[in-house]
Amino acid sequence: MLTLYRNARLCTLDGAYGWGLIDEGALLAEGDMLRWVGPESELPSDVVAARTHDLGGDLVTPGLVDCHTHLVYGGQRADEFEQRLNGASYEDIARTGGGIRATVRATRAASDAELLAATRERTRTLMHAGVTTVEIKSGYGLSLEHEARCLRAARKVGQELPLTVRTTCLSAHTLPPEFEGRADDYIDAVCTWLPQLKAEGLVDAVDAFCERIAFTPAQTGRVFDAARALGLPVKLHAEQLSDQGGAALAARYGALSCDHLEYLDPQGIAAMARAGSVAVLLPGAFYFLRETRLPPVAALREAGVPIALATDHNPGSSPTLNPLLMLNMACTLFRLTPEEALRGFTVNGARALGLHDRGQLAAQQRADFVAWPLHHPNELSYWLGSNPACRVFIGGQEV
Ligand SMILES: N=CN[C@@H](CCC(=O)O)C(=O)O
Ligand SMILES: [Zn+2]
């Protein structure tokens, strides 16, 4: 059954460059896939659509892809925000039992129902802001039982809501207190959990935090070996607070993406370019932690590394559910162009998840799109902190 969506100003992002604007455009979908995209005047004359939607002249973009989030957690960390404003650093707080470990305590204390309800609410907020595909990481459970609970909550939300949820196992996020002084033993344990979590259908990818306050490159490599043995793709929190050579390591495993990257060096960039890994930049965390070291955007561009953006929603370093604010911050803080920012939150975000059937408006792409009451796509990164009332279509259905 064909459905026609007409009277739209399309921003297709089709091709490698440019907005791909089509005035008075139309989309034709069959089921959840686009079959034809173009000017309404060129719609094939033999098309008989069973249903027609008038999009009222709105700007229509591909659905947003939030490719890096930590949406499953208990509690919040406003107290640490206050501590940092009184002089403590993110690393100081982490080293004294706060930070990720504080959220691990709150997550373990939350019931299954509370975790599910909180995750559902956060995901729903993102969806109504234009997100049609979201990645959700574990990483605040840090035991087999609690990591499984977090990943189940993410999977359940993907079954309950119409958007696509991709799950990532981030058990190597930080060392849980019961393994204090035994980081290698903890990594051994994580490597034994992965087959069980995968067997339950809970894991689409594997991630780790390679950093002074988390795991070494050698420990990260062991997690990646275990992922590779299971045929699972990897991603990495790399070079956020220091240069550990994490991106180059991840690239050797063909990583889908390396994320954060403020301290990425030229060797890391070259390795990512060779491996085809996406650079996921996270302006929310950069802003919220008041980082000063900028990710090497110009060098990434020059090397042809695709750049994606994400909210990185988490309670410690990026407590935002506002994708358009991330577009604005990527432009103002990282000097991305508005077009690069939108590509980062659509087609390149999809690539960072290994998905090639979404992120552009073109035939054979999913019918995931957003109708915005705006005239030009550069406004998506312009209206600072406000969210235009958008209409979100996932698989051709308005949500
Ligand atoms: N960098 C590591 N992980 C998260 C923050 C975790 C936290 O502070 O709770 C991030 O992506 O920013
Ligand atoms: Zn993260």
TrEMBL record:
Its cofactor is Zn(2+); Fe(3+). Gene3D superfamilies: Metal-dependent hydrolases, Urease, subunit C, domain 1. Transmembrane segments: none annotated. It is an enzyme of class 3 (hydrolase). N-formimidoyl-L-glutamate binds at residues 140, 314, 316. Pathway: Amino-acid degradation; L-histidine degradation into L-glutamate; N-formimidoyl-L-glutamate from L-histidine: step 3/3. One of its GO terms (molecular function) is imidazolonepropionase activity. GO terms for biological process: L-histidine catabolic process to glutamate and formamide; L-histidine catabolic process to glutamate and formate. It catalyses: 4-imidazolone-5-propanoate + H2O = N-formimidoyl-L-glutamate. Residues 59-399 form the Amidohydrolase-related domain. Binds 1 zinc or iron ion per subunit. It is found in: Cytoplasm. Zn(2+) binds at residues 68, 70, 237, 312. 4-imidazolone-5-propanoate binds at residues 77, 140, 173, 240, 317. It holds the Pfam family Amidohydro_1. Catalyzes the hydrolytic cleavage of the carbon-nitrogen bond in imidazolone-5-propanoate to yield N-formimidoyl-L-glutamate. It is the third step in the universal histidine degradation pathway. Belongs to the metallo-dependent hydrolases superfamily. HutI family. NCBIfam families: hutI. This is Imidazolonepropionase. The gene is hutI.
